[in-house]
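ok trying this again, last paste got cut off
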Amino acid sequence: MPRYVLRRLLSAIPTLLLIATLAFALLHLTPGGPFDSERSLVPQIQHAIEARYHLDEPVWRQYLRYLSDLARGDLGPSFQYRDTSVNQIIALGLPIDLAVGGCAIGFALLVGGAIGLLAASRPGTCRDRVPMTLSMLGMSVPTFVVAPLLILVFAMRLHWLPAGDWVGGSWRHLLLPALALALPYTAFIARLVRASALEVMGSAYIRTARAKGLGPMAVLLRHALRPTLMPLVSYLGPALAGVLTGSIVIEQVFGLPGIGRFFITGALNRDYTLVMGLTLLYGALIILCNLLVDLCYAWLDPRVRLAQ
């Protein structure tokens, strides 16, 4: 297993290099530059700024310089936020997204998984139809509608929780953003777990367990749970990366200084290094989450572990 993990990590290097190359090429092919504005700068000032950030060099030399800095772990300075590096921006925004996203995915797994298993234990009954109807509603209502409704109810009407901002990451400021981000994932996980459980419950070994006299919940938890989680693990790969990098809508509604807001600001202002750094971060998280998914597969299914 350690050799497999090492091989996967080494194979991620060419993928990240390709992501960096594509991001660099696309950003430099976009019309305009990071210091273009409606008011033209004095040519001497424009040249001095471009020389400071090496934008006066040929594109191929800028690319090699960026790769050299990247090999040392330096994502470069931000063009929009003066005297601030991209590493500092990520260090500022990523912990907030990790806190909100981690709580959201944990809530979605616990609540959505439990709802899906309960619905699958009695298919066709009220225990199945009511939560599945509510989950369809949760998938249909967009986040930019759910988040203001939560603020309206719990912050403005009941005065239980703050409406936004981020004060030291306290649980009171964390709860509403995490809940708003978790609701659609909870609904999707509930339906996914239910569908997977119903498919597994029709297997031959499940019928054998029932013939031995085991009850529905005992059969589900002892024999059907691990195979049921296989499709869920596949879904969690990209879902984890998306949740952990934050939701731009959630950050805007609740006023969170996460990396999603920095990404939008960087894209609008053609902040090359900031956009490329956050793109590489997202790509690295996708690769890491897919590796974790494969390791979970090996834990859930011994046949996968033997193949590795």
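PB: full thing came through this time. DSSP finds 13 helices and no strands in the chain.
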